[in-house]
Amino acid sequence: MGLIAAVCLAEVLTMLGFSTFAALLPFFRETWQLSNTDAGWISAIFFAGYTLAVPILVSLTDRVDPKRIYLLSAALAGAAGLGFAVFAEGFWSALLFRGLAGVGLAGTYMPGLKALSDHVGTEHQSRAVAFYTSSFGIGAALSFPLAGLLAEGPGWRWAFAGPGAAAVLAGLLVLLLVPRSAPHHLHAPDTALLDFRPVLRNRSALAYTLCYTVHNWELFGFRSWIVAFLVLLLLDPTMIAAAVILLGMPTSILGNELSMRFGRRRTVALIMGASALLCFTIGFTAALPYLVVVLFCVLQGFTVSGESASVTAGALGSAAPGYRGATMAMHSTLGFTGSFFGPLVFGLVLDLAGGQSVLAWGLAFGHMGLVMLGGPLALALLRPKPLPGDRAPASVAEP
Predict the structure, then answer these.
(1) Which domain holds residue 255?
(2) Is residue 189 part of a domain?
């Protein structure tokens, strides 16, 4: 448990700068005269940096101690945060440093999970993944109020410098508290570094990876634009956004427990279906009373995180021996492709539909509902197998 706690704490620290730009998006949109599409690009480039770097960095964890990759990437994440604080002056400089921050995340998130899984037994792996992925969400949620507090206090540049320093601290924690992966954990595959054909032939892992892709499309579209949406209605949108996201975090762990008990494929499909239904609804609540909007945001916060641990544990648990790092690399690459397009397409739909009207927000959120329906479809077509730790009774067992 000490190792799990240390790695989860490090994950929270590296995530404190995750939502900083989203939290301050209304400020930057006005100060730098950004269009919704410009703002969408700055939000999306973070995930583009992640997506471009993650195939290499995470695949290397099959061949190189993931701790080494983590330490270098935590240093890069720290430099990106401090660089934004010192040098960002507009669209292009913001684009550069947010892209570098995405590369830093690529080398800390999944490599951190690989380092953890190398030292956790198979019977505890699914729960360890649930705690770790929840730490991702906790850090992302805390970054909202932290950004608001620092921006209102010493200034917006400190809102990026503080999380940059936290990423460096995370690297120190991993350096001191996480053991190196023993050679028997590094089962170098026979294929070349970026040859993902064996991973793509794994139907179970691929099904959960496709679910992760549409999950991230919704998750990061929601998180990138929730503050801008709440600005229409609320006095302190960063605190409300953080509360919405934090309230949803236990559902990631609960969703994984339900998957283990009642069947992973069935549970994930039900959660994704409920989340799609809320996406079709939430944008149109902008015209309704304050408490109704908050209620729908809280419900969305619950469902948007509910399948996260289940699908990541599903992909990791379905990985073939020697291809765990490659499977995680493909999982992250496709998953964060969704993270890139979610915020960007949200901004494009918002602009094309007229900007700040109720209809525009309804359509922008609604497009994510259409995307989410792809998750249950992938599960129905690929029919992933249960994991060894799943305990579904025969009456509800997955075929």
Answers:
(1) 2-180+195-382
(2) no
Quick: pLDDT tens for 37-73: 888 889 889 988 988 898 999 888 888 899 999 999 9
> pTM for the full model?
0.77
DSSP symbols for 362-391 = HHHHHHHHHHHTHHHHHHHHH-PPPPTT--
Each residue's pLDDT tens digit, 254-312: 998 898 888 899 999 999 999 999 999 999 998 888 788 888 988 998 899 889 889 98
Note whether residue 378 is domain-resident.
yes
Structural domain contains residue 90: yes
For the chain, give me the number of helices (H) and strands (E)? 18, 0
Report how far apart, in Å, the C-alpha atoms of 218 and of each of 68, 212, 366 are.
Answer: 32, 10, 10
Q: What pLDDT, on the 0 to 100 scale, is given for residue 233?
A: 65
3-class state of residue 180 by DSSP:
coil
**Residue 351 predicted with pLDDT over 70:** yes
What's the CA gap between 91 and 93, in Å, rounded?
6
Say if 398 falls within a structural domain: no
d(CA 83, CA 76): 10
Backbone φ and ψ of 48, nearest 5°: -65, -45
Residue 261 has a pLDDT of 87
CA 184 to each of CA 156, 329, 331, 368: distance values in angstroms, whole numbers, following the listed order: 46, 20, 23, 42
The answer to whether the beta carbons of residues 59 and 329 sit under 8 Å apart is: yes
Residue 179: DSSP 8-state: P
DSSP assignment of 34-72: --HHHHHHHHHHHHHHHHHHHHHHHHGGGTS-HHHHHHH
What does 22-42 look like in DSSP terms, one character per residue?
HHTHHHHHHHTT--HHHHHHH
How many domains, the chain? 1
CATH number at residue 153: 1.20.1250.20
Asked if residues 81 and 167 have their Cβ atoms less than 8 Å apart, the reply is yes
* 294, 282 contact by CB (below 8 A): no
Q: Which residues contact 208 (CB under 8 A, 6 or more apart)?
A: 268, 311, 312, 314, 315, 318, 331, 384
Cα angle 115-121-126, degrees, rounded to a multiple of 5: 80
* 344, 262 contact by CB (below 8 A): no
